[in-house]
Write a structure and sequence with these properties.
There is one protein chain. The chain has 372 residues and is an alpha/beta fold. 24% of the residues lie in helices and 24% in strands. It has 8 helices and 13 strands. The strands form 2 sheets. Strands 1, 8, 9, 10, 11, 12 and 13 form a 7-stranded mixed sheet that branches.
């Protein structure tokens, strides 16, 4: 497939499908000859990643059999199909995860959570997408699994991403393998007949990191209200898609924020910065869902945040931050004429100057604004 820029919306006949209408997935093949090493040995493990002294029966008593493993990218992304083989039910909602446990001889147990890629349609079967990393013992284990192996896990657990109502558009923002739960959400909602607009933006570093496009094309082909775009922070020559990080490329593409729920998943820097910007511009926190995979404690830089906010073109909601900045600016302007500068900046000055029009307008907007 040519990945020289993506904009998928509405019917598109380019995606192969099976007779049942399901996406035609690549042939299963053993994951071999990785640039990254395969299964990790005890001598390689960072002991901080291993939980010594824990019983394997503590919460990871469930078992699933690996049915297939597919290598998706040359940069280390794999997709696994698993089937729960214990006697417990496997029911999940989009956004939930399973925790995988790996025992390492002589050290203890390494554990890692993975959001479920597949929509909640297939009883007892589920799919995961995993980025294999050199210092991640569980990811390396999963990336080197073969059909028939049994893994220990717990779950499904975690928050559901399902909207509380079907009356708002959805904007989905993901980086890397954060695409997984958002694909699960979009595909599940669309199959249920969701008719509001779903717009998905996916941020990656390299063109070689791209995967899952057959499935995304399939959604766009069958559902005119779904579209997706990919943005690359290190695009190759000839790339015609979006360029830059999500915080660079997406804000100018959002004409309005009202009537929309936002889902942010992946790098904690992206999720925190976009959530903060959306909130500053008037989107209600109840309509902003975050799921960060790393950089959980990222604190946005004020100058970076100012630059991100400046890229937004949407101005349909009342912005508490802009209102406060306007009041602060008027306060400083009024201080030389109004005395000490500690008085109410909207009050008349000693020379009877009227209340500034911009403050009147901001107050009016505050009364007119919806919840966002």
């Amino acid at each position: 497939m040519n990945h020289q820029g993506f904009l998928r919306s509405g019917p598109d006949e380019r995606s192969p499908v099976t007779a049942s209408g399901s996406p035609l997935l690549p042939e299963a093949a053993p994951v071999v000859d990785w640039d990254l090493p395969g299964r990790i040995s005890a001598g390689e493990v960072d002991e901080a990643a291993v939980l010594g002294g824990w019983s394997p029966k503590s919460r990871y008593g469930r078992r699933a059999e690996v049915e297939w493993v597919r290598r998706l990218t040359p940069t280390g992304t794999v997709r696994l199909g698993l089937r729960a083989v214990d006697d417990q039910p496997f029911d999940h909602h989009p956004g939930q995860f399973v925790g995988i446990e790996l025992g390492i001889d002589g050290l203890g147990y390494a554990r890692s959570p993975y959001c479920i890629l597949s929509p909640p349609d297939e009883e007892r079967r589920f799919e995961l997408v995993v980025r294999v990393v050199r210092n991640g013992p569980v990811s390396r284990y999963l990336g080197s699994c073969h059909p028939g192996e049994v893994v220990a896990f717990r779950g499904p657990t975690g928050r559901s991403m399902m909207p509380k109502n079907d009356e708002r558009d959805l904007v989905l923002l993901a980086t890397g393998v954060g695409v997984g739960p958002l694909y699960s959400l979009a595909s599940h909602m669309l199959r249920r007949g969701f008719d509001r607009r779903i717009t998905f933006y996916w941020g990656l570093r390299l063109a070689e990191d791209i995967f899952l496009t057959d499935e995304l094309d399939e959604l766009a082909r069958h559902h005119p209200n779904f579209s997706y775009r990919i943005t690359l922070s290190r695009p190759p020559a000839g790339w015609t898609g979006l360029r830059g990080r999500i915080t660079d490329s997406v804000p100018p593409l959002l004409p309005a924020l009202g009537g929309t729920s936002f889902y942010l998943c992946g790098n904690g820097a992206m999720t925190e910065e976009m959530a903060t910007a959306l909130s500053d511009l008037g989107a209600a926190d109840e309509h902003i869902y975050q799921e960060h995979y790393f950089n959980q404690k990222h604190v946005p830089d004020p100058l970076v945040m100012a630059a991100i906010r400046a890229r937004f073109v949407a101005a349909d909601l009342f912005s508490p931050l802009a209102h406060q900045e306007a009041r602060t600016s008027l306060f400083h302007l009024d201080a030389p004429l109004g005395g000490s500068g500690n008085a109410d900046p909207t009050a008349p000055t000693e020379v009877g100057r009227p209340v500034p029009k911009v403050v009147e307008r901001a107050s009016s907007l505050a009364g007119e604004a919806g919840a966002g």
